[in-house]
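In this supplementary section we document a worked example of the pipeline. Step one takes a protein sequence of length 327 as its only input; no multiple sequence alignment statistics are reported here. Step two produces a three-dimensional model, which step three serialises into structure tokens for compact storage. The input and output of this example are shown verbatim.
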Amino acid sequence: MLSRIAIPSLFMIAQVLAHQNLHQFWVNGVTPGYQVGIRMPPSNNPVTDVTSTDIVCNVNGQSGANVDVIPANAGDTIQVQWDVSTHPGPIVHSLFGPVSSAKSATGVGSWFKIQELDYANSQWANEVLMANAGKFSFKLPANLASGEYLLRSEMLALHGAQTLGGAQFYIGCMQLKITGPGGNCSPKYSLPGAYKATDNNIYIPDFYYGFVPSTYSAPGPAVATCTGGGGSQPTTLTTSRTTTVVTTSRSTTAATTRSTTGATTRTTTAAVTSRTTTTTSRTTTAAGDGGGGAPLYGQCGGQGWTGPTTCAQGTCTYSNAYYSQCL
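The serialised model returned by step three reads:
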């Protein structure tokens, strides 16, 4: 009888330990502190209702009035640290903003995805974090408008995805004040609204431990491309050349009139000189130094990708079967 009690108890403990929270993050290797700058939920339980506002920044995540706003720059490296979990699934990071105040932003509305790691190199994203003490690094886009943002970290556990409503979302929202050169990022997606319980990357009837997907991408759209702002722009160089053309015309008229009285009248017209100035302008347009290929942090490859496969800046780096990025 005791053994019957012990086995399910151990199973329950394992399940609790597999639940997870985001506890800390670093900006270029510097942390504001343990659980500082993060809207911490009341527990490490998952969100399973994708239509609830809890899917945005977790339970009680609608306000960050008592949470610090941490400074960062566009292009900075962010490292997050989660509780480790054996539950297979992807990790996704998205931004909401810029907004006037990260503390008062609910996060309900339009987001854009800046990073995604699914199943790559025979590993799920959670396995990558397990191998690195729960830590995971990525870069903020280089082309971001200055302002305050919510940075959303999402880990999706798929071990229960064979049941409708069984997929488990673990979410942590950080509050940032980002300084950037400007830019626009697309595509965008809405939370709540973009996820549906019946989506084939949330509800997977044949999912099981050890499941190896032939294709899989996390919920939401593709990773956004951010352009403009600090990107290389064409440069127009205008040069003006002024040419002075001097035209001289001389006209002399000599007329002799003899009257019947014998008097002679002579009329002389003096030389007339005219000067004409002509200005010629020449405009030369020179291309910027951006070169060809995708911009830094832009997509440069992946299954079904029809855009550029080289990078104007950086190196085309494999992320997963559907996404490579210029880093």
